[in-house]
């Protein structure tokens, strides 16, 4: 009887995880595709996207990659709909997950640093970059995509290269992600992995932290300088530039919180050869949290929800009106 109660409790807990994964995946996919549709609509109506919109569009694509490669397989597994046994499917899923994760870090870093430069005072050391920075954003995003795809392609190719030698040794470095078992390539080539993946991620995290602090300091100084003007105004609504900065600051802060939690849980997961199911599922949930939440933070910035509602109405709205939202 105690064993059956324990099994029922475990099954109920796994079902709860499965439902949570399902809701997180469905809502996250809907939010990111809605946001991507908004940016594509603006592009096809021949309106030039703002630089921040361009960065956010690629952040949205990265979020979609993470949700499709992490949330969907995890949902299918926890609800026991299918078991992923193919080694090729495993490598492909993990590849897209890592590319999406790296691009999410890179684009969030780029967005934070760019906004920091834009709102910097005219007498700051960034004054010359204010004009030049927008010209290099598209090139920087392209470089990020190429770098992420090539770097994470090295490890599957490395695994194929040493496959015969690897299978002849004791395979103790196998991590179960919940839906497939994959070789821990980081342990095979630790120095290469650190140089190509860990160092860029840590560097981007430091830049995001610095940019967030700089934005907070700039906003504080600006509010102090114009405090007497705000008191004279009837409306207490902050300027558009301040609202945009605050939303990007919120996005960067949210990213840093979930990224830190994700790193802690992933490191903990890597320390165990046979981790418990709740640790595997909790780590999976945290890994998808930022891609799930970020589109709604961006929607609140640009009132995208209202724009999308108007787009689905019979009477189409003027692109001028949509662009101002």
TrEMBL record:
GO terms for molecular function: pheromone receptor activity. It comes from the Eukaryota. Its main location: membrane. The keyword Transmembrane applies. One of its GO terms (biological process) is sensory perception of chemical stimulus. Signal peptide: none annotated. Keywords: Cell membrane, G-protein coupled receptor, Glycoprotein, Membrane, Pheromone response, Receptor, Transducer, Transmembrane, Transmembrane helix. GO terms for cellular component: plasma membrane. It is a multi-pass membrane protein. This is Vomeronasal type-1 receptor. The lineage of its organism: Eukaryota, Metazoa, Chordata, Craniata, Vertebrata.
């Amino acid at each position: 009887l105690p064993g059956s109660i324990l099994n029922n409790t475990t099954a109920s807990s796994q079902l709860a995880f499965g439902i949570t994964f399902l809701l997180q995946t469905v809502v996250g996919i809907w939010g990111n595709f809605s946001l991507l549709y908004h940016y594509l609509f603006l592009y096809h109506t021949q309106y030039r996207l703002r630089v921040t919109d361009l960065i956010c569009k690629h952040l949205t694509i990265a979020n979609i990659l993470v949700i499709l490669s992490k949330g969907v397989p995890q949902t299918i597994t926890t609800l026991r709909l299918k078991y992923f046994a193919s080694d090729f499917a495993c490598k492909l899923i993990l590849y897209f997950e890592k590319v999406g994760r790296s691009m999410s870090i890179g684009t969030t870093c780029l967005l934070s640093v760019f906004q920091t430069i834009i709102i910097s005072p005219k007498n700051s050391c960034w004054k010359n970059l204010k004009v030049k920075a927008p010209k290099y954003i598209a090139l920087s995003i392209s470089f990020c995509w190429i770098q992420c795809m090539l770097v994470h392609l090295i490890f599957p190719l490395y695994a194929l290269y040493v496959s015969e030698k690897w299978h002849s040794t004791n395979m103790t470095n196998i991590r179960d992600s919940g839906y497939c078992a994959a070789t821990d390539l980081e342990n095979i080539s630790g120095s290469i992995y650190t140089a190509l993946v860990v160092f860029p991620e840590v560097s981007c995290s430091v830049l995001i932290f610095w940019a967030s602090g700089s934005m907070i300091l700039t906003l504080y100084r600006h509010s102090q300088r114009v405090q007497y003007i705000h008191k004279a105004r009837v409306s207490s609504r902050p300027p558009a530039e301040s609202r945009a900065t605050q939303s990007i600051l919120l996005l960067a802060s949210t990213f840093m919180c979930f990224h830190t939690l994700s790193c802690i849980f992933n490191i903990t997961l890597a320390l165990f050869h046979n981790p418990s199911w709740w640790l595997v599922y909790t780590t999976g949930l945290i890994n998808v949290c930022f891609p799930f939440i970020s589109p709604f933070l961006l929607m609140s910035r640009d009132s995208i929800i209202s724009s999308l509602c108007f787009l689905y109405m019979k009477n189409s709205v003027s692109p001028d009106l949509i662009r101002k939202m």
